[in-house]
Design goal:
Helix content: over 70%
Largest sheet: none
Number of strands: 0
Low-confidence stretches: none
Structural class: mainly alpha
Order of helices and strands: HHHHHHHHHHHHHH
Distance between the termini: 36 Å
C-alpha cells in the first residue's frame, strides 16, 4: 500500500470517529471529491478541537490558533507545527496532531483554498478565544458563526467550482453554515451554559435563536437550487434535512433525532 493510499484510509477512519453529521454525506461523494472534502473537513476539525478543548485556557488557545493560522496562510511547515504542539501532545486528539497528513492528502489543485479558509477560521477562533466567546449582539453572533461554520460553506463552494465548475452563492453558503451551527447551539445550550458560555445575544430568548436558525436554513434551501451535480446535491441536502428535523424534534420536546430517523432521512435523499 502506498503512503498516499494509507493516509487516505486513515483520513476516512478519523473522519468516521469525529463527525456524525458529515461522515455519511462525504462517503456518498465520488473521487476525487470524497478525499478532498474529507481532508478539508479534517483540517477544520483539527483546529476546532483546540478551540473547544476543556484543558486549554483561553490565552493558550489564542496563541496556538494564531500560530496555526500563520502556518496555514503561508507555506505549511510540518516541523514547525509539530514543535508548536509538542507541549500539548498528550492531551490533543489524533485529528489535531495529524493536521499535516490531512493537508498532504488534499489534491494539489484545491489545497491552497482549503488552507486559506482554515487559516482564516483559526484566526477568527483565536480572536473569539481572547473575547471569551462573549456574544452580546446579533452582529456578534453572525461574526462568530461565520468563523466557525460559514467558512465551511465558503470552502465547499470553492471545492465545487474546482471539481466541475459548479457556481454557488458564497453568501448563501455562509447562511447554510450559520444555520447548521445555530442548530448545534440550540442542542448544546445547557452544556455550554455549564461551562459558562452562552451564544445568545442580550435580550434574546431560545425562540429568537430558533428563528435565527430557521432563517439561515432558508438560505441553505436557496443555496442548493444552483447545484445540478447529483452527488454534490445529496451531500448538501443531508445535513440540511437533519438540521431541520433536529429543530423540529427540539421544538417537540425531544433532545435529538433517533438513529432510525437519521437513517431514514439519508435513504429518502439518496433515493431521490
Amino acid at each position: 500500500m502506498s503512503k498516499k493510499t494509507s493516509l487516505e484510509k486513515d483520513a476516512m477512519r478519523v473522519l468516521k470517529q469525529t463527525s456524525r453529521t458529515f461522515y455519511i454525506p462525504i462517503t456518498l461523494l465520488k473521487q476525487p471529491l470524497k478525499i478532498t472534502v474529507g481532508s478539508a473537513y479534517l483540517c477544520m476539525r483539527a483546529i476546532d478541537e483546540i478551540e473547544d478543548h476543556e484543558l486549554l485556557d483561553n490565552s493558550t488557545k489564542k496563541v496556538l490558533l494564531d500560530a496555526i493560522s500563520s502556518l496555514l496562510r503561508n507555506k505549511f511547515n510540518q516541523q514547525a507545527y509539530n514543535e508548536l504542539l509538542t507541549p500539548y501532545q498528550s492531551i490533543l486528539p489524533e485529528v489535531t496532531l495529524r493536521l499535516g497528513d490531512w493537508v498532504e492528502v488534499c489534491p494539489a489543485g484545491i489545497v491552497d483554498k482549503v488552507l486559506e479558509s482554515t487559516g482564516i477560521m483559526a484566526k477568527g477562533m483565536a480572536d473569539w478565544a481572547e473575547r471569551d466567546w462573549v456574544v452580546t449582539t446579533e452582529e456578534d453572533l453572525d461574526d462568530y458563526t461565520y468563523y466557525v461554520a460559514g467558512l465551511v460553506g465558503v470552502m465547499l463552494s470553492d471545492i465545487w467550482e474546482w471539481y466541475d465548475g459548479t457556481i454557488t452563492d458564497r453568501e448563501l453558503a455562509i447562511g447554510y453554515g450559520r444555520g447548521l451551527q445555530a442548530v448545534n447551539m440550540l442542542r448544546n445550550q445547557e452544556e455550554d451554559a455549564e461551562r459558562g458560555v452562552t451564544f445568545i445575544p442580550d435580550g434574546w430568548n431560545r425562540a429568537d435563536l430558533f428563528a435565527y436558525a430557521k432563517g439561515n436554513l432558508e438560505k441553505a434551501d436557496t443555496y442548493i437550487k444552483s447545484i445540478q451535480t447529483r452527488h454534490i446535491l445529496h451531500f448538501c441536502k443531508i445535513p440540511l434535512a437533519l438540521a431541520k428535523k433536529t429543530l423540529k424534534a427540539m421544538q417537540d420536546g425531544k433532545e435529538k433525532m433517533s438513529r432510525n430517523e437519521v437513517e431514514e432521512t439519508v435513504e429518502e435523499i439518496v433515493k431521490d
